Amino acid sequence: MAALEFRKSSFSTGDRECVEVSTNVPGIVAIRDSKDPDGRILRFTPAAWGAFQAVLAEEG
User: DSSP 3-state helix, strand, coil percentages of the chain (rounded to 5)?
Assistant: First the structure.
């Protein structure tokens, strides 16, 4: 399996909570806490991640 390559949100700063996302492995969207890069990683299917983002957009 290829290594996950995370990218940080442009909204992330040293004093704000943020996540990093990896989409470089087909079929997996991986999320981790930017302040704890060695911590747990959540993995989603692209469809589940898209549904989650749609709900956030509605709440926005």
Answer: 25, 25, 55
Q: How many helices (H) and strands (E) does the chain have?
A: 1, 4
Sorted by where each begins, the domain ranges of the chain are 18-59
Q: How far apart are the first and last CA of the chain?
A: 35
Which H or E run includes 59?
helix 46-59
22, 43 contact by CB (below 8 A): no
Strand-pair partners of 32: 20
Chain segment 42-59, per-residue pLDDT in tens: 999 999 999 998 998 887
Q: Whole-model pTM?
A: 0.78
Contact 47, 53 (CB under 8 A): no
